[in-house]
Amino acid sequence: MLRYVGLRALNGLISIIGLVILVFFLARLTGDPTDLYMPIDAPIEAKQEFAANHGFNDPALVQFGRFATGLLHFDFGESLRQSRPALDLVLEAYPTTLILSAISMTLAIVVSIVVGALAAWRPNGVFDRVSSFISLAGASIPNFWVAIVGVLVFSVWLRWLPTSGTGTVWHWIIPITVLFIRPCGLIVQVVRGSMISALSAAYVKTAFAKGVKDRSIIFVHAIRNAMLPVITVAGDQAAGMINGAVIVEVVFGFPGIGKLMIDSISFRDFAVIQAGVLVTAIAIFALNILIDIAYAMLDPRIRRV
Amino acid sequence: MMADTVLTVRSPSQETSRVPWILRLLWRDKFAFAGAVFLLVVLFAAIFGPALLGKQAVTMNLLARNAPPLSLDKGWLFVLGGDPLGRSLLARLVVGTQNTMAIAALTVTMALTVGCLFGLLAGYVGGIFSAIIMRISDILMSFPSLLLALIVLYVLQPHLATVVFVLAITRVPLYLRTIRAEVLEVRERVFVTAARVLGTSPLRIVFRHILPVVAPTLITIATLDVAFVMLSESGLSFLGLGMQAPDITWGLMIASGQNYLKTAWWLSFWPGLAITLTTMSLNLVANWLRIVADPAQRWRLETKGMAND
């Protein structure tokens, strides 16, 4: 187990380093930010001074060396746009995204386990057919379209909910729903599939024969064995939450990591892009480790490896 | 009269015996059948749309600016309404199909080919080569695909080729890993060992003996992936980093309709519906394919049909 975790950590480190190098040079290819930040009629000397101050005149490799040295001291450089440490901006933006994705993901997992388990109870029954169709539709809808239609119906027509911003609880309802739909639709299908095979296992029949209540057969006996594939897909979806968060944050003006990244990309704010990429990669890496631990907790066979 | 009824009754039953086995299996699953029919319509629109309605999609009728849908006052072209410049939404939707589908199909083909090639090699050759490929795919997998695509598309000029290239790169690891895992399992089977003992060349083993075993899984994944890529592409267009304005894609139509949400909701509604229905159809067909490709599950469709007959 320890050897396995060590190997995983090493692979993760290699991936993260590769990613940082990739993004550093990709970002540099977007061009020189000087023209974007200096007034268009600024004297050429002033532009050169700006570039020299921020080190944009140096060869890319020298810039990378400086960046890498900084990283070792946890110094991600300064945001050009806001003249503040890039890491601060990223860490300020992350809580919004984390709360948003954590609530959506938790809801998605809980709802889909209940719905998927009930659907598996009577395969091809009415509930199964209806829930299969709805979950398939949920997994097929573009999330930004749900966002737009949600705003149209609940904010413009019914005037129940605000259109954008983060002020009150009401502001969070549509964004959370938007992020919730796709993972929920996908996980329902996985839960249903693995529950059907778990329910046909011999130990479930034994439980039946003993006269165990239906509810506890589903939610105590069968569900533990059905959880492994669910965790894989849920983990995958959780890592992909950032994709959805980018769109939701842009549509609803949420000050999260997605919006920060989009803004930084269009303003060529290299330091913030790099810090954002690195923090995101580390977060996803940590998430994967957590998933491994969850596996081990659910399945004692894995613990022995 | 009598002869008529006999004829009409008999001819379909004669038909079905001639209809290929695979089509009969498709007919057994009504949802998948509906999905397949819808996909055929989409395919038709993608191939012939620009030739049939290309002109109408850019013709402006100033009287039909933001014309409401479901009315024939402005002619059949405006049955889905008009856009802010008075162009027919129906025509634009049909013409936009080509770009939307071309991007999705090209992306998946490219990702499938590259992933397949490297996956087969990594699985069969192994060693340091495999390790390097897997690390590169780890790097791509360790990061949200949309964010990666955004960064790359900001560097490159957004048009069809670059959008396809960027989306394909983010999809390669999926195929690579699946194929490698399958190859690792298949190459230990007896028939591969037998082929090797008989002196078959490694290339022939990989492409003639291993690939056909892996193919059904691949096709299912690819069908599902077309749906995923369509969603990603429309997301990119929506954020303004996909195809650009004179071109028409469904994602772009939704994005441009967003500003008129309060006055003309139909601008964003129809393209979104088109994406949803196409993605759903792909999902339904992929689910059906998964069952057909799996001999352990295929009987469900086969016996179900017999009961109906």
Detailed description of the structure:
The complex is a heterodimer of chains A (305) and B (309). Chain A is mainly alpha-helical. Chain A has helices at 2-29, 34-37, 44-53, 60-72, 86-121, 126-140, 143-157, 170-199, 202-210, 214-252, 257-266, 270-298, 300-304. The mean pLDDT of chain A is 80. Residues 1-15 and 305-309 of chain B have low confidence and may be disordered. In chain B, 77% of the residues lie in helices and 0% in strands. Chain B is built from 12 helices and no strands. Chain B has a single domain, classed as MetI-like fold. Chain B is mostly helical.
List its traits.
heterodimer; A: 305 residues; mainly alpha; flat; B: 309 residues; MetI-like fold; 77% helix; 0% strand; disordered N terminus; disordered C terminus
The CATH superfamily of chain B is MetI-like
Number of DSSP E strands of chain B: 0
Largest interface: A-B, 46 and 40 residues
Oligomer: heterodimer
Order of helices and strands of chain B: HHHHHHHHHHHH
Please report the number of helical segments of chain A.
13
| Overall 3D shape of chain A | flat
The chain-level mean pLDDT of chain B equals 77
Rg over CA atoms of chain A:
24 Å
Shape of chain B: globular
**CATH fold category name of chain B:** MetI-like fold
User: How large is the radius of gyration of chain B?
Assistant: 24 Å
Strand proportion of chain B: under 5%
Percent helix of chain B, as a range, is: over 70%
First and last CA, distance of chain A: 6 Å
The CATH class label of chain B is: Mainly Alpha
Hey, roughly how much beta strand do the residues of chain A contain?
under 5%
- DSSP summary, beta strand count of chain A: 0
Q: Point out poorly predicted stretches of chain A.
A: none
Mean pLDDT of chain A: 80
